[in-house]
Amino acid sequence: MTGTRPVVLLVDDEPRILSALTRALRREGYEILSAETPQEALRLVASRPVDCVLSDQRMPGFTGLQLLERVAAERPQAARMLITGWNEELAPADLERVGVRAVFSKPWDDTELKRGLREALGTAEPG
Amino acid sequence: MGNPIGGSVDAAPGVRVLVAEASPSLGRSEGSALRAALEPLVRGGFLESVPDLRSCLERCRTSDVDLVVVDEGLGRDAEEIVERLRRSGPPVLVLQRVPADAAALAWFRRGAADCVAADAELAGLRRAAREQLERWRSARRGAPGELAIDWALSPAPADGEPRPDPGEAERERHAQVLQTAKMASIGQLAAGVAHEINNPMGFIHANLFQMSEYVADLRQVWGRVESLQKAVDAGEASAVGLAAGELREAVAEVDLSYVLQDLAKAIRESQEGSERIRHIVQDLRDFSYQDTGERVLSDINQALDSTANIVWPMMKHLVELEKDYAELPPVPCYPMQLKQVFMNLLVNAYQAIEEAVGSSGKLGRVSLSTARYEGGVCIGVADTGVGIPADKLDRIFEPFYTTKKVGSGTGLGLSTSYSIVKRHGGTVSVESTPGRGTRFSIRLPLLGEEIGGAA
């Protein structure tokens, strides 16, 4: 990690989840952005460099996977991760195609989450 | 082929009943009760006993049978009779040797029209048989009127035993079937509810983790405060200065003002989350209550709304919910049963939309409405889902008929809903356009007479 802080974008339609995730990552040294809708997330990704997008899977009208697919096209360098409360079947082929690095389940384990982000941001090229 | 055991072998226009049973036949005590129960229904038709699957099917093929009563004791033959007749045969009433809900459900799934305990009272057996005969004949002929059954048959049994309440056993059975169907619909919702609880659970869990770190931060600051206090007590100016410096450092290091502020916020948010979980659990508990035997005056808008709240988490990612409630008078009803009807309709609406929009990113719409009409209230549940083809529309209220893919439906939802509404003296109607959507309308009279017997 160089001089600038890595930028992490959190996406969830539940503001309290965004708040708790931000809280959990407070000491990690990231610049944290958050978006409550996939549309807002895409606007952010288009307007500024983002190093990692961590998105909820199930959101109104748009899945996290669909969002990350768009992110992959828009900003392929950004690490892509999902967090989900549903044990829905995320097909490994889809995850691979979209280049999802990690899938966390809710309720998440803070330590695991932080480790996952560190690993991703240690290797991802800053956008 | 079969042995005539009662009534006349003369065919039409009487009622023709076959009893498929393990050998020594209707001579046993339960058999004679059965015979006593069925005989008066026959009226110029026949009541025959057949010993196995082959003779039963043969008899059904060669003559117009109106009802088959199958003894569970026939084992595999009994199962096959039910399965073979399910498509186009007459209704099959299963006599259960060991009455159990789960076993009854298995019989229903095979295609049984109803189950009744083999040792049930005469009135119960007769009522179950008569109900099926009525349905079968009215379905075939279009009108129940021409059935040659004396509907005024006295329910009073000949054996003279005192019966405190002949309807009680059936009421209980009815309640059990309703409860079973309700539990099945709750099963469909479990995933949605789990998710709705999981979200607040997720942030409460994360917040607690963070709050324990904040407590560690506060401890660190407090340690410095104690050191400062000691230095002040000892009255050593240099030590006081040193301790004060360390305290300032610690305050800056842990970012005390942020920690205090965010700790309060984390507590507030977690409280809100636990409140949400409490509500969900409360809603679910309300939903799993059973009605008492009495009708109560209820607010239909509220019943519809609280049911929509339970289903909402499961559907919100695909559905916009539209509500248009009119002011309604209180309606005398069994509120939990009506909630079950609303839930069935809502779950169906959601599944129809799910099938229509798939993962296209589009949202469907469910519209809930209530209105008054003279003498009653009307409840509408409309969706923009796949719709139901005309040829299936007239079957959807049949028990175990489902248009859904395996695993998504029990086929019980609408038939249960239908019987609940009927029990309230109301009506259910449906309009559907494939590709456009479906609308169910329920009309409930304010002065509904009890209809459908066991109530």
Please give a structural write-up.
Chain A has 127 residues and is α/β, with parallel strands linked by helices. Chain A is 41% helix and 24% strand. In chain A, strands 2-1-3-6-7 form a 5-stranded parallel beta sheet, sandwiched between helices. In chain A, strands 4-5 form a two-stranded antiparallel ribbon. The two termini of chain A are 12 Å apart. Chain B has 12 helices and 13 strands. A 6-stranded mixed beta sheet of chain B has the order 1-3-2-4-5-6, with helices on both faces. In chain B, strand 4, helix 3 and strand 5 form a beta-alpha-beta unit. Chain B is elongated and about 115 Å long. The model of chain B is unreliable at 1-12, 142-166 and 449-455 (pLDDT under 50). The A-B interface holds A 14, 16-17, 19-21, 23-24, 26, 58-63, 66, 85-86, 106-108, 110 and B 191, 194-195, 198-203, 205-207, 209-210, 262, 265-266, 269, 272-273, 316-318, 359, 361-363.
Summarize the structure.
The complex is a heterodimer of chains A (127) and B (455). With 127 residues, chain A is of the alpha/beta class. Chain A has helices at residues 15-24, 38-47, 64-74, 92-98, 110-123; strands at 7-11, 31-35, 52-56, 58-59, 62-63, 79-84, 100-105.
Principal-axis shape of chain B: elongated
Mean model confidence by pLDDT of chain B: 78
Per DSSP E runs of 2 or more residues, the count of β-strands of chain A stands at 7
Helix content of chain A: 40-55%
Please tell me how large the radius of gyration of chain B is.
32 Å
Please give the count of helices of chain B.
12
Structural class of chain B: alpha/beta
What structural class should be given to the helix and strand makeup of chain A? alpha/beta
Uncertain segments of chain A of ≥5 residues (pLDDT<50)? 123-127
Total count of helical runs of at least 4 residues of chain A: 5
Order of helices and strands of chain B: EEHEHEHEHEHHHHEHEEHEEHHEE
- The ordered H/E elements of chain A are EHEHEEEHEHEH
β-strand percent of chain B reads: 15-25%
Q: Going across the major beta sheet of chain B, what is the strand order?
A: 1-3-2-4-5-6
> Biggest interface between protein chains, with counts per chain?
A-B, 22 and 27 residues
Q: What is the alpha-carbon Rg of chain A in Å?
A: 13 Å
Q: Could you state the oligomeric state of the chains shown?
A: heterodimer
Strand content of chain A: 15-25%
* Number of strand segments of chain B: 13
Unreliable runs of chain B: 1-12, 142-166, 449-455
Distance between the termini of chain A: 12 Å
